[in-house]
Amino acid sequence: MSRLLPIAKRGEPILQQRAQEVTDIHDPTIQALIDDMLTTMLEAGGIGIAAPQVFISQRIIIVASRPNPRYPDAPLMEPVAMLNPEILWLSADTCTGWEGCLSVPDARAPVPRANNLRLRYLTRWGESVETEYTGFIARIIQHECDHLDGILFPERVGDKQKIVSEAEFQQVSRARE
What we know:
alpha+beta; two-stranded antiparallel ribbon; Peptide Deformylase; 177 residues
């Protein structure tokens, strides 16, 4: 049975460190961690999560885009656990989109990201995958991989005055509908 894990908030040292490579994918504690991360992310209303966000210094991310109150226009996909993900290529064309973070719960900001990327990672079963992602899914992957390198999304925002509270963001979003 999966457990709900505490989520590290901005200012926690683990969020500023490079996470360690996963060396034994078949270790039962790694498999349990993946299940616990997924449960924690879903409970918190996230669309992605990285192990450092649950106080574990391992290079593991979960990408699970789906429409929810925080991201109503997110595309639907099955959750994917990615171990030791490595971005091999980022497109020169970029797009600026609003991001939030479970570790920075009361902030949203426009963040520029590459539109496309090529990624290599291991599945939870040890299979090596190399594939390309585009659009919103590519944005999630870049955001979560940043966590593995100790970077939070506000550090990617050029004009810090553009960082708004979640309440302000929701108000502006509703006004656009």
